[in-house]
Each structure stands twice: as C-alpha cells, then as structure tokens.
Amino acid sequence: MLTKKQNLLETIKGGNPDRFVNQYEFLEIITEAPKRIRPTKGETILNEWGITLSWPEDQIGPFPVHDDEHRALKDITKWKEIVKVPSVEFSDEVWAPAIEHAKAVDRDDQYVAVFFSSGTFEMTHYLMGMEDAMMGLYEEPECMHELIECLTDYEIHYAEQIIERLKPNALFHHDDWGGQISTFLSPDMFKEFYLEPYKRAYKFWRDNGIELIVHHSDSYAATLVPYMIEMGVDIWQGVMTTNNTPELIKTYGGQISFMGELDSGPLDVKDWDAKLIEEHVEKACTSCGKHYFIPCLTQGLNFSSFPGVYDAASKAIDKMSKKMF
Amino acid sequence: MAKIEEVKANVEKGKAKLVPGLVQEALDEGSAAGDILQIMVDAMGVVGERFSSGEIFVPEMLMAAKAMSKGVEVLKPHMAGDSSTNLGTCIIGTVKGDLHDIGKNLVAMMVESAGFTLVDLGVDVSTEKFIDAVKTNENVTLVACSGLLTTTMPAMKDTVAALKSSGLNGFKVIVGGAPVTEQFASEIGADGYAQDAGSAAVKAKQLVNAA
C-alpha cells in the first residue's frame, strides 16, 4: 500500500495510485503557526492591518466590517499613508507549538503544510470593501498595482519567516477568486493585476523548499486554470461542480490537479444526510476518475461547518476506493 | 450620435467620469429628463444581461452602476414630480445570521437602476426589521432577501413566512444568494428567485409589473 504522499504523487502525476486521495489526508497543516489576528465568536476586533473584524455569536465565522466608519482604506490614492504593513516577526515562544507540530510529522507519509490566508485578491477587499476594490481596478489601476505588490511583498516576508522556522514542503493558500458561477474579474483583468504578483510569490515559496502548492478558491474559476498553471499551482482545491471538472481534467490533467467536486453548499448543512453525501461522492469519483482528481468537500480546510460531515465524506470516499481500485 | 444615445453607450461602458457631462449636454440639446433616465435604465438592463451571460464581470457592473448614479445626480433637479420610471420601493437586506453583502449590494444597484426606490437594510437583518420596513416605507412593491450561507437558509425561510403571514400586502418577495435555488425559493413560498444581480433586476420588474 502506498503512503499518503506516494498515493498523492501517483494521482497528480498520472501514475498508479492504489486508492483515491482522501480529502486533506496528504497535508498536515500546521495551524499553530502565527497568522493574522482573528476575533473569537462574539468578538469585534481591530486587527494588525487596521481592519475591523466581527464574529457575531450566531454566525459560523468572522467578517470584515466595511461601513463608512470602519472601512480601513477609504481612498485608494492614499494607500501608502493608510496601509500599515504589520510585522511578520514573532517570538520563539509564539513559534514553539508550530515547530513542535512540524517536527512530529512523518514526512514520508504526509506533507508539512503551512496555511496562508488571505491572498492578495481577498486582502484588497478586506481593506477597502468589495465595491471600492473592484472599481479601483478601473479608476486607479496604478495604485491598485502598487497595493497588490505591497501585499505580495508582505506574503514573501511572512514566507521567509515560516520557511526558516518550520521547513515546510507544502503550501495551502487561500484566495477566493469567484462566486458559484463566475469569476469576480474577467480573465484578462485577473491576468493584468494578479498573475505576475502570484507568480512572484509562488516562485519564492517554491524556491525555498515548497514542493507542493495547493490553492484554495471554492468557486467557479475554470477560466483561470491556465493562469493557475502558469503561476505554479499543483492542485486547485475547492473546485465546484459548476466548473465541469471532468472536462478540466481532460484538458489540463498532468499540468494541474483538481480537488473538490463535493460542493459544501448542499452537503455541509445542519440536517446533513450521509446517503446524499455518498451519492455525491460516487458521482464525483466516477465522473472525474482516478487521475488528477482528489474528491473533497469544497470548504477550505480539513473540517466541516457541521460536525460529522467531513468524516462522512471521508468514509464515502474510502468506499468508492474499494469499488474502483 | 445624439447625446442621449451617447449617454446610453457610456453608461453601458461604465464611463462614470463622462456620463454627467453627457447628461447635461443631452438636457441642453432638449432631451426630457425622464427620457434620459429611461435610457439609462435601459442601459443598465443591457449591463444586467451581459453580466448574466458572463460577458462582463463585477467591476464592469459596478462601474456602469456608478456611471448611472453620477448621471442621475445631474438629472435630479430636473426630475421633480416625475415618477415615470418608478416601480415602487424595494426593501433589501441579507437575512439574519449572515453578514455577506457583496451579492446583496450588486442586486441593490441593479434593482435601483431598474427604477425602484431602494431601502437597503444592510446585513444580518431580522424578520422584524424586514416587516417594520414594509410598514414604515411608502409604496413597498418588493422585498428582496439575500443569503450566502447554508446555515442561514432557515432564516430566509422564516423571513419569507413572516412577511407572507404579516397581513401586509401589495408587495412581492424575491430571494437569492449562493445556496438558494429556484426549488428552495418555491418551497419557502417566495414569489421569485434570481441567480444573479442582472437577472434579479429583470425578475423584480416582472414581479412588480405582473402584480
């Protein structure tokens, strides 16, 4: 039996996997690594970027607050005066749990993965709100290019620290680039603003020990796949069924792999249904096949919003492995 | 090209800096303010169709809405008492338990551009707040409920049920958002469903005109 890592490599290289890669099993994500301050449930905080984040009691996660009073960056032309890039240096004490976790991983079996969130695209929204960030691309393109470069520099500085401390060999990178049925930006505009900065960031990670880049965008982004390949993404995690994944595999398999097809929307619900999850897993596995595909809930980490859903999907994937391998 | 046609073309292209001047020139040329407003509404209809078909994306839609909004500012002093394009008041909000506002804001812009007077209640809106808004605003013809989280779908169901059983009338309820489907909309008793902001504006007009 192949190790989790070997099975992953056979899958994404079109070799001879002996089972489906089961969701995030190949990644040991070092979540203890220091990252952006987040509120806990019930809190509203001002984070180190000057972004107000609120997590009301009855919600499943925090959100940036973008009303006139709280929006961090109200005028993109003044971004250099307003945006204060936080330090990426943390004490040994802060790093200690992450280092311990990374050391404990069997690197023959799994990748030691670091988690980076939010990517440059989402960060512009966090700072400015969606509307201003989107219109800024038309109205103040030079400023937007500068801000995106600055955010990319920040990512690289953070990468320097985390690479030195943890010696990871995989990156799990969040940046949502679309909604269910379309990308937020046209592919041309995405290319104009985000391709080169992403190439620069991902090259840095790769040049410094990262062997595997997994990019999360739980959205439609089929039209951006050529750019994902160009920027060096190995696996696009979060691919929703709206992308026609079997067709993407036919077109791009061998250059990139696709992880998802189990849309969290209908499956990860309060009254979740194991039978429905099994049906979706069966459809995903039979339609996407054994190569360049990893069945996975589209949510961007190795858990579900409702307890039991992630495990039920894993169980159903094991069942399909027995059937198809 | 007549100035009024230039207004239409430049709203469609999202030329927010050019449109106010063109609207003024159209007025100077003798076009009626109501006609200029109508042509901008038509332009936003085209923008909505292009968005729905994937020909344009969020930034282009936002720029078009901004262009129209800038044009309307020039028109306002000339529009007193003109209600030719007014489809009534639309109350919009993201339902309780959900703080997402991007989709809701896009729908708000498109619905306003289609000729509704807009009352945006924001995000995390309780059932009571929706009902109060229907009571306290004049000529409410539409209530639009948005939700992005599967976890808030029950709140959407409760909101629609409360609106329908409130005894208030004269308005239709439209719902939308990532996890919402036409089937779900129908199951919870909504009058309409739209998949995106462009089709929301079209559906909103249909619902109100059919009432």
UniProtKB/TrEMBL annotation, chain A:
MF terms (GO), sorted A to Z: uroporphyrinogen decarboxylase activity
Signal sequence extent: none
UniProt record, GO biological process: porphyrin-containing compound biosynthetic process
Residue intervals of the Uroporphyrinogen decarboxylase (URO-D) domain: 45-286
Top-level lineage group: Bacteria
One Pfam family hit: URO-D
SUPFAM superfamilies: UROD/MetE-like
InterPro entries: Methanogen_methyltrans, UROD/MetE-like_sf, Uroporphyrinogen_deCOase
Protein name according to UniProt: Uroporphyrinogen decarboxylase
Organism the protein comes from: Desulfosarcina ovata subsp. ovata
Classification of source organism: Bacteria, Pseudomonadati, Thermodesulfobacteriota, Desulfobacteria, Desulfobacterales
Automatic annotation (TrEMBL), chain B:
GO annotations of cellular component type: cytosol
Residues covered by the B12-binding N-terminal domain: 1-87
Keyword Metal-binding: yes
GO BP, sorted A to Z: homocysteine metabolic process; tetrahydrofolate metabolic process
InterPro entries recorded: Cbl-bd_cap, Cobalamin-bd, Cobalamin-bd_sf, Met_Synthase/Corrinoid, Meth_synthase_dom
GO molecular function: cobalamin binding; metal ion binding; methionine synthase activity
Keywords: Cobalt, Metal-binding
Location of the B12-binding domain: 87-211
Similarity-based family: Belongs to the methylamine corrinoid protein family.
Listed PANTHER family: METHIONINE SYNTHASE
Protein name: Cobalamin-binding protein
Lineage: Bacteria, Pseudomonadati, Thermodesulfobacteriota, Desulfobacteria, Desulfobacterales
